[in-house]
Amino acid sequence: MFASAGAEPPMRAIAREAGVGIATLYRHFPTREALVDAVYRDQVGRLTAGARELLGRLAPAAAMRRWMDLFGDWIATKNGMLDTLLAMIEAGEIAHAQTRTELLAAISAVLDAGRAAGDLRTDVTAEDIAAALIGIFTVAPRPAQAARAGRLLDLLMDGLRRPA
Fold this sequence. Notes:
The protein contains eight helices and no strands. By secondary structure, the protein is mainly alpha-helical. α3 (about 30-55) packs antiparallel against α4 (about 60-80) and α4 (about 60-80) packs antiparallel against α6.
């Protein structure tokens, strides 16, 4: 619901979508902030674990491109909870710096594997890739502009490949 919502969805709508009653939702997540925190932490975990999982089954360049899609999904999920998320970051309830460190480590793992395989450029940093991804998903947000985002991600990947 967070990914598909243009604005933060009401808790009742979230409960209905999950197939539970509102009391059940509130029993597990007594506040919107508790729910957003759980979703956010789950998504960061999936994103960082996704890098390792993709490297275990794909060549590094293919893993990088697929991980970019996972990053886009993560950004889309954040859009539906942005107001609450920003308030929580401002209040210090979510360690934004820790998330950034975790995401950069995931990018670095894939980038380093690509460098070792000779597939990806050596003069690009994880910070460069993160900035490019944020730019792409700012101008081509998912799901509304998924096709455009895909084309831009493919262009980014072309630029990341090591020249022959």
